[in-house]
Design brief:
The chain is mainly alpha-helical. It has ten helices and three strands. It has two domains: about 5-90, no CATH class; about 95-225, Four Helix Bundle (Hemerythrin (Met), subunit A) (Up-down Bundle), CATH 1.20.120.
């Protein structure tokens, strides 16, 4: 994450916490603890308050000072834990947006599942193959990068396998007359035995599908686990 994004994120985190009662208590205890550790003038007053409220006797400045600091850290820790789902949503907001765009492109229409089960010796719906080609052609550059390194690594793998599949589809298929399908069998080969080169073209596309599907599923599993 860039430095400016880190600053923005930290500021947003404080918006959740600053101004709440736990925040005020944490600041009070932290200030008191640092004060006890740094100056002796008002220590007796704090000693008396602490002894009255806890029935414990404090023997040194350090014990009281560090005790107050620890209490403030505990309050902050508990509040951070309670609000972590909000923090997490804020931190990964951009990744969530990109992840959902990916699902809209390839998952929601069922394109990946179609690619997984289709035999390209048969005509294929152009809508689904076009989405694979669009993903390969468009999803590159900073606008299509995850902030999370793990997700970005899996996206890079998917982009590599999508390139192999998209290039195979683009080079070895043609649209049919209806423009609704792509096929490895041009019109002049229909009505006769399927030529061997047509079978080989279909095999080339079919062989590129499993890796693409596997990389997509790994990215989706990781994304859903991390982002939701």
């Amino acid at each position: 994450m860039a430095l400016s994004e880190n600053k923005e994120f930290i500021l947003e985190i404080f918006k959740f916490f600053v101004g709440t009662l736990p925040a005020k208590l944490a600041v009070l205890f932290a200030t008191g603890g640092v004060g006890v550790l740094s100056t002796p003038y008002w220590v007796p007053i704090l000693y008396k308050i602490f002894e009255i409220t806890t029935d414990q006797k404090i023997e040194s400045n350090d014990a009281l000072g560090w005790g107050l600091v620890v209490i403030s850290l505990m309050i902050f820790g508990v509040e951070t834990y309670k609000k972590w789902p909000q923090y997490k949503k804020l931190y990964y907001a951009k990744d969530v947006e990109l992840f959902e765009k990916l699902l809209d492109l390839l998952d929601v229409p069922g394109s990946v599942r179609y690619i997984e089960t289709h035999d390209f010796l048969n005509d294929a719906f152009k809508e689904h193959t076009d989405r694979v080609i669009e993903f390969y052609a468009v999803w590159s550059g900073a606008s299509y990068e995850f902030i999370d390194r793990g997700l970005q690594s899996r996206l890079s793998k998917l982009q590599a396998s999508a390139r192999i599949l998209a290039e195979a589809i683009a080079m070895k298929t043609v649209p049919d007359n209806s423009m609704q399908f792509v096929t490895v069998r041009p019109n002049h080969t229909r009505g006769q035995a399927i030529p061997n080169w047509v079978r080989q073209d279909a095999i080339s596309i079919n062989n590129a599908c499993p890796q693409f599907v596997s990389d997509f599923d790994e990215l989706v599993r990781e994304g859903r686990k991390l982002l939701y």
